[in-house]
Design goal:
The chain is α/β, with parallel strands linked by helices. The chain is built from nine helices and 14 strands. The protein has two domains: 282 residues, Vaccinia Virus protein VP39 (Rossmann fold, 3-Layer(aba) Sandwich); 36 residues, no CATH class.
Length: 327
């Protein structure tokens, strides 16, 4: 980390109108805040955020250093935040929650806490759609049931709940089209004969049109392999502990592109190493990140080539030696 105290703070905090407290650091598009997100959320005006994209601490059997509630207490804990989420979201805004599963203590059976949370959230939000994130790089776990006794398979899928205040939140799947398969290109080249399928669906000639890509499914296959990323290297070089539970930048990028427009505001109340803010910055969305652990925010600075600070002994610009930092 290179600190340059001679450079003036010539870029204003883009989130100063929404959050009155001093940011931990800010960039051209967003700002991070150190503290309890439940307290910080209360400072944000009503109906001011377009998307809340987050991965909260999971209800795991073994406690993590970043803090996580027990499964039987999880819903009650989370719903305190949910009320604030609904208040700060715009009427066409969305709440997207990546939440992994958990095993029950001492036996090879699953907790259903994430589904209990969805049921509770459905009382105050609309369930727009459920997504599933498949991580092919996930390690086999828990070892006792998967590797040793071999009575379960590896848990490689996480649920992602998409909720909204109304039945018609802002969304455009043409912003997240996937490349066509070779078979689809061949079909478009050879033409398609309209017919009724055995399922009862009427497939018209329009099926063969080139629409610049295929509509993605609600199963997202995204690997999470960043062991060689600059973020991890710079954390090690500076003696900082990296956040142990980071989702890949492709996951928030998908939903940011799908559910927001340029200059919309994206919020992550449990930002950790600030992958959401990094993803939002890359596609020119404004963003707010909140985190309780200072060391994670310190490390998150390495995701950006330059951040601005005005606190303690730093009054100027912090420039990082890497101009391109991967998640």
């Amino acid at each position: 980390m290179k600190v340059n105290n001679t450079l003036p703070i010539d870029v204003p905090n883009p989130m100063a109108d929404l959050v009155q407290r001093e940011p931990y650091y800010y960039t051209n598009f967003g700002a991070t805040y150190l503290g309890d997100s439940l307290d910080i959320l209360k400072e944000i005006p009503d109906s001011s955020v377009n998307l809340i994209m987050t991965s909260p601490p999971y209800a795991l059997v073994f406690k993590k250093e970043y803090g996580n509630a027990d499964a039987d207490e999880y819903v009650e804990w989370f719903m305190k935040f949910a009320k604030e989420f609904k208040r700060v979201l715009r009427d066409d805004g969305s709440l997207v929650i990546d939440i992994g599963g958990a095993w029950n203590k001492g036996e090879p059976t699953r907790s259903i806490y994430q589904f209990e949370l969805l049921i509770a959230l459905s009382k105050i939000f609309k369930v727009a759609q459920e997504f599933y994130w498949y991580n092919p790089a996930k390690l086999p776990a828990p070892a006792e049931w998967v590797n040793v006794r071999r009575i379960r398979v590896k848990d490689a899928v996480e649920t992602v709940w998409w909720l909204s205040k109304t039945a018609y939140p802002k969304a455009d799947n043409s912003n997240v089209l996937q490349p066509y398969s070779k078979d689809m290109y061949r079909l478009m080249e050879n033409g398609y004969r309209a017919k009724k399928r055995p399922s009862g669906h009427n497939i018209t000639n329009k099926f063969g049109n080139n629409n610049n890509g295929s509509i993605p499914p609600n199963l997202l296959q995204i690997g999470n392999t960043d062991s060689q990323s600059n973020y991890l290297k710079l954390c090690e070089q500076n003696g900082l502990k990296p956040h142990p539970a980071r989702f890949p930048k492709e996951l928030p990028t998908f939903f940011i592109n799908f559910l927001t427009d340029i200059n919309d505001i994206v919020l992550d109340p449990f930002c950790g190493s600030n992958v959401t803010g990094y993803a939002a910055e890359n596609v020119k969305r404004k963003w707010i990140g909140m985190e309780l652990v200072e060391e994670y925010l310190q490390g998150s600075e390495f995701r950006f080539p330059k951040v601005w600070k005005a606190r303690e002994h730093i009054n100027g610009v912090v420039e990082h030696t890497s101009s391109k930092v991967q998640s």
